Amino acid sequence: MNPQQQNVWGFMYEQSDKLLAQTGQHLGLTFISLLLAIAIGLPLGILIARKAKLAGSVLGIAGVLQTIPSIALLGFMIPLLGIGAKPAIVALLIYALLPIIRNTYTGIQGIDRHVIEAARALGMSKQQILLRIELPLAMPVLLAGIRTATVINVGVATLASYIAAGGLGEFIFGGISLNNTNMILAGAIPAAALAVILDFLLSRLQKLDVKKMLKFLYLFPVAIVAMGVFYLIPQSSGTKLKAGFTPEFMGRQDGDLGLKSIYGLKIHTTVISDAVMYKAAYEGEIDVISGYSTDGRLKAFDLRILDDDKGIFPPYYAAPIVRESSLIKFPGLEDALNLLSGKITDSIMTELNYRTDQLKQSPELVAKEFLKAKGLYKAPRGGNAGSVRIGSKIFGEQYILAEMYRMLIEGNTSYSVATKTGLGGTKICFDALTNDQIDFYPEYTGTGLLVLLQPDPKIVNLITKDKGKTYNYVKTAFHNQFKIKWLKPIGFNNSYALMMRRKQSESLNVTSITKLKNYLDQH
Amino acid sequence: MIAVSGLTKSYSGNKAVDDISFRVSEGENLVLLGTSGCGKTTTLKMINRLISPDAGVVTIDGADVSEGKPEELRRKIGYVMQNIGLFPHFTIAENIAVVPKLLHWDADKTLKRTLELIEKFQLPQSCLKLYPQELSGGQQQRVGLTRALITDPAILLMDEPFGALDNVTRSGIQAEFKALEEFKRKTIVMVTHDVQEAFELADRICLMDRGKIIQIGTPKELLYKPANDFVIKFLDSQRLVLEFKTTTISDLWNLLPDSLSKLNTDKFDSHLSVWEVMELFSSASSSQENVILNHITYEELTVAFHKYQKREKR
Question: So what's the ipTM on this one?
Answer without folding.
Answer: 0.85
